[in-house]
């Protein structure tokens, strides 16, 4: 005999007031509050970034002189055609490229080596990390003036050291290659420690299990660096290359203060694009020409960054297909 028990259904809850719906104002605030939080950034960017960029493009189409900025004469692409027929523009473009290569390649190589050393357990690592960042915190004016004294022709410390080993003095401010090496050394001194700390942060994010597995397989420190550290640092290396390329294209303070001339030396031998733009705008008072140079620099940076990104993407696809 089977007994079946049936439970009584629970009584329905007593009727009460309906749940209050959020008001229209509250719903609108929930929808637009994220935009309100980021609005200050976009407001400042539009005022101090986007508007100057667009206005510079507008000014580059006119003949504008610094003495009479209100008198604007339409030139169309005349500023650009005059720019591309100016030999000093191509010289400054070539100088920008050579100084960029001379400063970026040794800088990133030295930064990678320093980061690799600091990644191991060394005594005083905290002090060394702080010390290598001090050049970055130093004023560009102070650093350039000190290096200008070091590279002095008659009483500079560099020429004195060269004389001790039997070399004749070098005129660092007149020779083309010598002056570009001198300017590049300032950039290397200021930015090597900064990039080294970026590389060090990237190295510390690589899993230690990869190094342990490589060590078990008998890989030496050099093999571990080539096959574990460098592949793990590839995004960081691409980032530093892009940032260094942008910085080299906009190089201005070091060549300006090295000799104190806006022409970049007697023969324009180390005049960069930034210095050439300053000379046209505030030396010759051609604001329209200077605006055209600024936009050429902007397009050049976009092209260089795009080429770097394309090379990095093809490299990653090739390695992924192996």
From TrEMBL:
<comment type="similarity">
    <text>Belongs to the binding-protein-dependent transport system permease family.</text>
</comment>
<dbReference type="GO" id="GO:0055085">
    <property type="term" value="P:transmembrane transport"/>
</dbReference>
<feature type="transmembrane region" description="Helical">
    <location>
        <begin position="292"/>
        <end position="312"/>
    </location>
</feature>
<keyword id="KW-1133">Transmembrane helix</keyword>
<feature type="compositionally biased region" description="Pro residues">
    <location>
        <begin position="10"/>
        <end position="20"/>
    </location>
</feature>
<dbReference type="InterPro" id="IPR035906">
    <property type="entry name" value="MetI-like_sf"/>
</dbReference>
<dbReference type="InterPro" id="IPR051393">
    <property type="entry name" value="ABC_transporter_permease"/>
</dbReference>
<feature type="domain" description="ABC transmembrane type-1">
    <location>
        <begin position="93"/>
        <end position="306"/>
    </location>
</feature>
<keyword id="KW-0813">Transport</keyword>
<feature type="transmembrane region" description="Helical">
    <location>
        <begin position="35"/>
        <end position="62"/>
    </location>
</feature>
<feature type="transmembrane region" description="Helical">
    <location>
        <begin position="130"/>
        <end position="152"/>
    </location>
</feature>
<dbReference type="Pfam" id="PF00528">
    <property type="entry name" value="BPD_transp_1"/>
</dbReference>
<protein>
    <submittedName>
        <fullName>ABC transporter permease</fullName>
    </submittedName>
</protein>
<feature type="region of interest" description="Disordered">
    <location>
        <begin position="1"/>
        <end position="21"/>
    </location>
</feature>
<keyword id="KW-0812">Transmembrane</keyword>
<keyword id="KW-0472">Membrane</keyword>
<dbReference type="InterPro" id="IPR000515">
    <property type="entry name" value="MetI-like"/>
</dbReference>
<keyword id="KW-1003">Cell membrane</keyword>
<feature type="transmembrane region" description="Helical">
    <location>
        <begin position="172"/>
        <end position="191"/>
    </location>
</feature>
<feature type="transmembrane region" description="Helical">
    <location>
        <begin position="97"/>
        <end position="118"/>
    </location>
</feature>
<feature type="transmembrane region" description="Helical">
    <location>
        <begin position="233"/>
        <end position="253"/>
    </location>
</feature>
<dbReference type="GO" id="GO:0005886">
    <property type="term" value="C:plasma membrane"/>
</dbReference>
């Amino acid at each position: 005999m089977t007994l079946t028990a049936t439970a009584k259904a629970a009584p329905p809850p007593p009727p009460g007031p309906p749940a209050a719906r959020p008001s229209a104002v509250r719903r609108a605030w929930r929808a637009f509050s994220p935009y309100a939080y980021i609005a200050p950034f976009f407001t400042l960017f539009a005022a101090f970034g986007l508007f100057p960029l667009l206005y510079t493009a507008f000014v580059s189409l006119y003949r504008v002189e610094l003495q009479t900025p209100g008198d604007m004469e339409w030139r169309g692409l005349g500023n650009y055609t005059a720019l591309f027929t100016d030999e000093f523009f191509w010289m400054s473009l070539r100088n920008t490229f050579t100084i960029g290569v001379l400063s970026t390649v040794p800088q990133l190589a030295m930064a990678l080596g320093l980061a690799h050393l600091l990644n191991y357990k060394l005594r005083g690592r905290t002090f060394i990390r702080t010390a290598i960042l001090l050049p970055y915190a130093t004023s560009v004016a102070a650093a350039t003036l000190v290096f200008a004294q070091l590279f002095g022709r008659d009483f500079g410390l560099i020429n004195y050291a060269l004389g001790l080993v039997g070399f004749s003095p070098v005129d660092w401010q007149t020779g083309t290659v010598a002056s570009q090496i001198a300017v590049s050394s300032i950039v290397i001194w200021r930015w090597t420690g900064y990039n080294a700390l970026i590389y060090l942060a990237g190295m510390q994010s690589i899993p230690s299990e990869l190094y342990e597995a490589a060590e078990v397989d008998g890989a030496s420190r050099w093999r571990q660096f080539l096959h574990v550290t460098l592949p793990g640092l590839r995004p960081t290396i691409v980032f530093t290359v892009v940032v260094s390329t942008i910085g080299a294209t906009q190089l201005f303070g070091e060549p300006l203060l090295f000799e104190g001339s806006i022409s970049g030396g007697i023969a324009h031998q180390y005049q960069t694009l930034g210095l050439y733009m300053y000379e046209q705008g505030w030396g010759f008072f051609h604001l329209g020409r200077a605006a055209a140079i600024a936009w050429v620099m902007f397009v050049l940076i976009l092209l260089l960054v795009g080429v770097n990104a394309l090379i990095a993407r093809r490299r990653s696809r090739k390695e992924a297909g192996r």
